Amino acid sequence: MNLYLVQHAEARQKEEDPERPLSEKGRTDIRKIAVFISENADIQVNSIMHSGKTRAQETAEVLAEYLNPPDGIKEVEGLNPLDDPMIWVRRVTETKEDIMLVGHLPYLIKLSTHLLCQDENKKTVDFRMGGVVCLKRDESGGWSVRWMVIPEILT
What we know:
Elements: E1 2-7, H1 24-40, E2 48-50, H2 54-67, E3 73-75, H3 86-94, E4 99-103, H4 107-117, E5 132-137, E6 143-149
């Protein structure tokens, strides 16, 4: 089972727009990522799930344009910056299908660290806005980092 964790792309500042939609740079970055992973990674997810915040929803929408998940994008609970990571730890432990989650920091750090080393206070993944991290669960239930793509490495 693969778990794709995506930090939303760069958003406008709250002072500029309280809804915090993606900035032009954020749109460009996530489009580069979406093109790259659609051409180079065999991602098969039924839907792309996001927190419901505008910046996460818009990031999910761009990814869906290129990955074409059959069920589109979905807003789900438990992906906001300060939510309890155990909600999704339990969910991903109970599923066999690949999942893509678009969320925020510090939540994604806590979720990934809990899965990788059962201690959400450590930092095992250095997330970047618009980046995608693929974690893989093996047959024994253990997790490892399979790959990571961030906008800064794509030209």
